[in-house]
């Protein structure tokens, strides 16, 4: 499996992988000094091929290599970590995913 070339586009607060004419990315923001992983995006034609997991794994490898930890507020990253517990050392803590739940009366 070929690796993505991951760049940290700090101006857009996201890790990016160039897929030719398209870009896959993992958005983040900071909460104090901790990077919070917020949203994973894979262009439609690259979905269903394991590219989200590949992107997440490579981003977590970069973060681990830098000696950092993250918080998680992204469903895709949460699923990846559930299936790959060997990356739990990279996670400082999970943030709850907040969903709007309007009550119908």
Task: Give a brief rundown of this model.
By secondary structure, the chain is of the alpha/beta class. Helix content is 23%, strand content 33%. It contains two helices and six strands; from the N terminus they run ββββαβαβ.
Q: Which features characterize this protein?
A:
105 residues; 2 helices; six-stranded mixed β-sheet; alpha/beta
Q: Assign the CATH superfamily.
A: Gcn5-related N-acetyltransferase (GNAT)
What is the mean pLDDT? 88
The shape is globular
Distance between the termini: 51 Å
Briefly note the CATH topology name.
Aminopeptidase
Q: Strand-and-helix sequence, N→C?
A: EEEEHEHE
As a percent range, the share of helical residues equals 10-25%
What's the main sheet like? 6 strands, mixed
List the helices and strands and how they pair.
Layout: E1 6-9, E2 14-19, E3 22-31, E4 34-41, H1 51-65, E5 70-72, H2 75-83, E6 91-94
Parallel strand pairs: 4-5, 5-6
Antiparallel strand pairs: 1-2, 2-3, 3-4
